[in-house]
Amino acid sequence: MRAERPAIYRAIEAAKDLTRQAQLLHDIDILVQLDQAAPEIGVGGISLSADLIWLKIDPNNPACTGSLKGEQFTRIATHEAHHAMRKAVIGQDETLGEALVFEGFAGRFTATFHGTEGEIWD
Length: 122
Known about the structure:
Elements: H1 5-21, E1 29-34, E2 43-47, E3 52-57, H2 63-69, H3 72-90, H4 96-114
Parallel strand pairs: 1-3
Antiparallel strand pairs: 2-3
């Protein structure tokens, strides 16, 4: 995984840039762990709270290297940072409808921030 370190650092810096641009008033801890992730892309993430993002990398998944070399992992970090920021302001989503809106906002924000069309699941 040494070769992928620059991509991991890029993703973390993108999430940090996002919080700076949004003038977030608190720090977000980012945990990067080698673990099972989305099978289609070999990486994943979850915003556990307003203060903690967990990014996962599955080095045993053949898709992982491509996701780290491309912008996929960086977009995931940005997406999860957006979730953390919203949780800090409005709290955790509690219903399916709220979860769909939560995901939609994060997806649109990530697409705008990175100048992309968004992910297939957005």
